[in-house]
Write a structure and sequence with these properties.
The complex is a heterodimer. By secondary structure, chain A is α/β, with parallel strands linked by helices. Chain A is built from 17 helices and eight strands. The model of chain A has no long low-confidence stretch (mean pLDDT about 95). Chain B has a single domain, classed as Alkaline Phosphatase, subunit A. By secondary structure, chain B is an alpha/beta fold. Classes of the chains: A alpha/beta, B alpha/beta.
């Protein structure tokens, strides 16, 4: 079994250059961390070179905090992780070379040995103690997340934004004309006045607008442009799962591991010009997300969640568009989603939940008490705004424009 | 009180408050619970039907105030006739097959959810058949086909072989029937939905063709009838209920277990599909009770138990993605409910004390009069 105390810089010779340098800077503290936690950290560090700046800074703050901690406190924090019992076959795995694979096995082992609750408890204590390091400082400007739902959907009897209403002001007479333009203008203005890489995002479930993109300093992702890479992944998975040369059909663990092992080049990103860090992120949306390949609504929700969690942007515009109609999974995994009948009403319900999750994910970031959030039912008069400047749980039936709502949110 | 117990208690209050708010259920506690006279002795002619309300439903979409619109049949038709347990904790592995197997053995099984293995501990079907010397066709399981083919009988390490339940996997059956008829109309595809969590998972050969022959023979239903009726259905769970009805008609088994699974479509991330599936499951539960009450072999002597195998992840647990999965092991994903209804079960009654999903097997044993020596749960006194 590899013991953390025996690790040297050479142990990480196969890690990418920046990751190696990062480990060299923090080796002493890494050597003191029990395997069940260290493997989680290494699974992030091994991809250090292709991580967003916010993720790199979070890792550095985290290890710095551990290094500065009093010995007794450090020992108490690590003790629950050290107390976890690992079966022999797991303990013998090379968790340094392939921490992700080790973590998959670790998770299965913790569940089957009923240690998962102890692990969760240890994790929560760790997060609580390192909250400042994990969260970082509040951004220079308050965060703003804008979610557009209901593209193509008609009026609905469903109560929209139900979970969000207690937290914000509901506007029932927003002038629809010009609203999308106003939202894009707002995003563009923020990117212009506070230029920073990966700080402003636009994620679209259909075709993205051309006036809100790289030229405006915004990181853009869209289902229309990325679906081809999802098809490639599905084809690879179909081929892997049905490989006649395998003696037994691939089990879920093999399939999951295979998916997670796919990189941007496997999905065809190498043929696409652009940002390798972003391509890594886009790849992960398909290899780590479930349903992102086949449903544009799931793609937008998961991408927004991951962008907030990883890149920690100050501006996010997420627009949900109709997803294809439901079909058996076996059919969904093989057909072109753009040539199918769409389900706009179902997609509205999906997006309504997606908006709620986007607000929750934004609220996990530093500066949440000053964050702004807006959701709009596209081409309709309904919007909800959350801001320290707006009263919670209120309803306004007055005729307003989106520009006015945005001003009141400032 | 650990975190799971604390959240289970909070959920219990929420569920009870909700039931009170719709003014349909009286609330009770251990102090007021007693064994109804009818059930003081096990009933040898009693029948038990277990429905797992799966796979994976949260309070938010069911018994929380905002979820009530999704379960009108449970709320208005079944709960007024039922004893309802507001605090049911599953402390095992939150995978559908292993969780259902744990409910069926009364022990938190520890095997890989996706492994094609039998439960290590004896199942309720084996206890029942051996203990009461019942024939094979007096215990049936109708289950989705994602690994459940081994749920009817344990591995044999702790119990002699040969006492398992008859297991029907309706989707395997339909696929085999369609193949035999050399047809695969798209209209049947929805009924063949299988593993939402690992759509690339291929179940091992279950000898479905052989099973089809056998089931045709014993259920006395032709391939053409299966295909024809399947064409009128819209989901895999509806197909399961159809097969259940055939089993009831032909054999009237005393112990019948049906696992519903449509709502696991949540793994696709589409909330609307998850809600649709919950509403369908709610309707199917009411239909199952109607079938029981209209069947001469079941009416007046059958206890129906409905319970989710587990919940799904909380919206607020950062390790998960809300309703989509059940991977975090957070308290909400472990906390569910049970309702029981039928003769001897107090109607319109709520129990707040904590119970566990593994308590079901010894409870069924007490009802029907057989021992469950390896089960770790305890009989639930309020419904004995």
């Amino acid at each position: 079994m590899i013991r953390p105390q025996t690790l040297t810089v050479k142990s990480f010779a196969h890690y990418p250059p920046q990751a190696q340098a990062f480990i060299a800077d923090h080796l002493a503290v890494l050597q003191q961390i029990p395997v069940p936690l260290l493997s989680i950290l290494l699974a992030q560090i091994i991809h250090y070179d292709s991580r967003f700046p916010a993720e790199q800074q979070t890792l550095a703050r985290q290890l710095h905090s551990l290094k500065e901690m009093l010995a007794a406190e450090f020992a108490a924090l690590m003790a629950p992780f050290a107390a976890l019992e690992l079966p022999d076959d797991l303990a013998r795995m090379d968790w340094v070379q392939n921490p992700r694979r080790f973590n998959e096995r670790l998770s299965a082992s913790l569940w089957s040995t009923h240690q998962i609750d102890a692990y969760r408890e240890a994790g929560h204590k760790y997060e609580e103690r390192l909250a400042d390091a994990l969260n970082g400082e509040a951004p220079a400007i308050p965060r703003l997340a804008i979610v557009i739902v209901g593209n193509g959907a008609s009026q609905t009897s469903r109560t929209l934004f139900r979970d969000l209403r207690p937290h914000g002001a509901l506007f029932t007479a927003v002038q629809p004309a010009g609203t999308f333009d106003a939202l894009v203008a707002c995003v563009n203005k923020r990117a212009q006045t506070h230029p920073e890489r990966y700080a402003h995002w636009y994620i679209d479930g259909g075709t993205p607008r051309s006036d809100c993109g790289e030229a405006q300093g915004i990181t853009v992702m869209s289902y229309r442009e990325l679906a081809a890479f999802a098809f490639k992944e599905l084809n690879l998975m179909n081929r892997f799962a049905g490989n006649p040369q395998m003696q037994t059909p691939a089990g879920p663990e093999e399939v999951t591991s295979y998916m997670a092992s796919l990189g941007p080049a496997d999905l065809g990103f190498s043929e696409r010009q652009g940002d390798p860090v972003l391509h890594e992120f886009e790849t992960s949306i398909f290899t780590e997300g479930a349903g992102t390949q086949v449903f544009s609504t799931t793609f937008v929700q998961w991408s927004a969640r991951e962008a907030l969690r990883r890149a920690q942007p100050v501006t996010l515009l997420a627009r949900f568009c109709p997803r294809q109609m439901m079909a058996p999974m076996s059919v969904l995994l093989k057909r072109n989603p753009f040539t199918q009948a769409m389900d706009p009403q179902g997609s509205l319900i999906d997006a309504d939940m997606g908006a709620w999750y986007t607000w929750i994910n934004q609220a996990r970031l530093a500066g949440a008490d000053q964050a702004r959030f807006l959701v709009w039912f596209e081409e309709h008069e309904l919007a909800l705004a959350i801001s320290p400047s707006l009263p919670r749980g209120t309803v306004s039936a007055s005729a307003v424009t989106m520009q006015q709502v945005l001003q009141w949110m400032d | 009180m650990d975190a799971i117990s604390r959240v289970a208690h909070e959920r219990a209050i929420t569920r009870r408050d909700f039931l009170r708010s719709v003014a349909i259920a009286g609330a009770g506690s251990q102090l007021f619970s007693f064994a109804p006279a009818l059930a003081l002795q096990p009933q040898r002619d009693r029948k038990v039907v277990v429905v797992t309300f799966g796979g994976g439903a949260r309070d938010k979409e069911t018994f929380a105030a905002e979820g009530q619109e999704n379960i009108p049949h449970l709320i208005r038709e079944l709960i007024p006739q039922a004893t309802f347990f507001t605090q049911v904790v599953n402390r095992g592995i939150l995978g559908h097959y292993v969780a259902n197997a744990s409910i069926a053995t009364g022990v938190y099984e520890r095997f890989d959810n996706f492994a094609h293995v039998a439960p290590e501990n004896p199942t309720v079907f084996e206890y029942f058949r051996k203990g009461l010397r019942r024939p094979a066709q007096d215990a049936w399981v109708i289950a989705p086909s994602n690994g459940f083919n081994r749920i009817g009988q344990s591995s044999g390490a702790l119990f002699p072989g040969g006492y398992g339940a008859e297991v029907v996997l309706p989707k395997e059956l339909l696929a085999s029937a369609a193949q035999r008829e050399d047809m695969h109309p798209e209209s049947l595809d929805f009924l063949l939905q299988d593993n939402y969590e690992n759509p690339f998972l291929v179940s091992p050969s279950l000898h479905a063709d052989t099973q089809l022959d056998r089931l045709q023979q014993i259920l006395r239903i032709s391939v053409k009838e299966i295909i024809a009726h399947a064409g009128t259905l819209s989901s895999a769970d509806e197909l399961s209920v159809f097969v259940m009805e055939q089993v009831m008609r032909q054999f009237s088994p005393s112990l019948l277990w049906i696992t519903l699974h449509d709502m696991d479509v949540a793994h696709s991330g589409a909330y609307s599909l998850y809600i649709d599936a919950i509403q369908r499951t709610d309707r199917l539960c009411a239909e199952i009770w109607q079938k029981i009450e209209s069947h001469p072999e079941y009416k007046g002597r059958t206890t129906l138990v409905i319970l989710p195998d587990f919940g799904r992840d909380s919206d607020f647990d950062g390790a998960g993605n809300g309703f989509q999965h059940h991977r975090t092991g957070d308290a909400l994903s472990r906390t569910t409910w049970i309702m029981a209804l039928g003769p001897g079960i107090r109607e319109n009654f709520t129990v707040d004390r904590p119970v566990e999903s593994v308590d079901l097997v010894p409870t069924i044993g007490s009802w029907m009069g057989f021992e469950t020596p390896y089960a770790k749960g305890r009989p639930v006194t309020e419904i004995l």
